[in-house]
Design goal:
Blueprint lengths: L1 E3 L6 E3 L3 E5 L13 E7 H9 L1 H7 L2 H4 L20 E6 L7 E8 L2 E6 L2 E5 L6 E5 H6 L14 E4 L4 H14 L5 E4 L10 E6 L4 H18 L2 H4 L5 H9 L7 E4 L17 E7 L5 E8 L3 E9 L8 E7 L4 E4 H4 L10
Parallel strand pairs: 10-11
Antiparallel strand pairs: 1-2, 3-4, 5-6, 5-12, 6-7, 8-9, 8-10, 13-16, 14-15, 14-17, 15-16, 17-18
Length: 337
């Protein structure tokens, strides 16, 4: 028995297919999760998992929010892509932000400042940070960018051995600049300003978001419907990023379940599809944690004889997946028009 993959459109044996979660499990494990069966081949599933799904989970603000919404433990924040997601904090009494990381402490999960150096950059005219790991591995070669009118500041958590490692690494660079020692630390119970600087939009993230919406289309209508040629442009965008028209657009968060302006919003995810007002365009909506919402143009028909309007809410607290058809307010309150 054969089936056809909704992405590569190749007919393959059923044994070459697996389970495909509509919303990647990286964003929560839910009771009665929405899953496609025999619709996405293992080859495409693995490719997406290694590329766009991985980028969405580990290299984006959407993925970073998982650590602050209870999906992932804070100390696992080290698994993010440090080139795309940066965590900073300001110690009590300190005027500037320093790179930080979450650690396990006797009191539970806590914050610690990453060992390394801070310096004033000539090119950006801002304070920059270099971790001890980067210094020791020789991954940093911007010593010429240091403004020598300002001191280089060390962060080493009060660990003398770490301080010695930083000093040894700096000795090899021969910076010729004043160096100030500082022990950045926080005490249990102190309130600390934490800032996450992360990528929110690029082509890879848009492809991953479009895939979620397209998965939901196949789930709610059928994989056979998703194989129609009108979706080939979206399919090519998800697989290769090959399209000139903007298919994914960031929009204002949806209003659901009676949410009102200024009121506390639900902190779960939404995946939905609807036939647009023109009667020919099928659009998808993907929202992460109630704060980052995207509209996806999936395809255009000349005329449709079926009704398309469906959505599911993924409650990250109860771990339930709730059909929005049963409990939503009128459509104008939950889908932007």
């Amino acid at each position: 028995m054969n089936s056809t993959c909704i992405y590569c459109k190749e007919p393959k044996r059923v044994s070459e297919f697996g389970r495909e979660h509509v919303l990647p499990e990286a964003f929560g494990k839910f009771k009665d999760a929405l899953v496609l069966h025999d619709a996405v081949c293992k080859e495409c599933n693995q490719y997406f998992g290694n590329t766009i799904d991985n980028r969405l989970a580990r290299g984006s603000m959407q993925g970073a929010l998982r650590y602050f919404r209870g999906i992932k433990p804070l100390q696992k924040f080290r698994d993010v892509d440090p080139e795309r997601v940066k965590l900073s904090a300001r110690a009590p009494g300190q005027p500037t932000l320093r790179q930080a990381e979450f650690v396990k402490t006797p009191e539970g999960e806590g914050l610690a400042f990453t060992p390394g150096i801070s310096y004033q950059s000539i090119s950006s005219n801002k304070e920059q940070f270099v971790s001890l790991e980067a210094l020791e591995k020789g991954n940093w070669n911007k010593s010429d960018d240091i403004d020598r009118q300002h001191p280089v500041i060390l962060s080493y958590r009060g660990d003398v051995q770490v301080l010695e490692r930083i000093q040894q690494a700096l000795a090899k660079l021969k910076l010729g600049v004043e160096i100030l020692d500082t022990i950045d630390k926080t005490e249990a119970g102190q309130r600390v300003l934490v800032v996450v600087d992360a990528v929110t939009e690029d082509v890879l993230l848009h492809r991953a978001i479009a895939k979620i919406a397209f998965n939901y289309l196949a789930y709610k209508i059928s994989p056979d419907f998703a194989l129609k040629p009108i979706f080939d442009k979206t399919r090519a965008f998800i697989r290769q990023g090959s399209v000139s028209t903007i298919l994914v657009k960031k929009i204002s968060p949806m209003k659901i379940f009676g949410d009102r302006e200024g009121a506390a919003r639900r902190r779960g995810h939404i995946v939905a599809i609807e036939l647009a007002g023109d009667g020919t365009t099928i659009v998808g909506f993907v929202e992460f944690f109630g704060v980052m919402t995207y509209k996806v143009t999936l395809g255009r028909f000349g005329q449709l004889a079926i009704r398309i309007s469906a959505g599911h809410y993924f409650d990250v607290r109860s771990k339930q997946v709730i059909p929005m058809d049963a409990i939503r307010p009128p459509p104008e309150l939950w889908i932007p028009r």
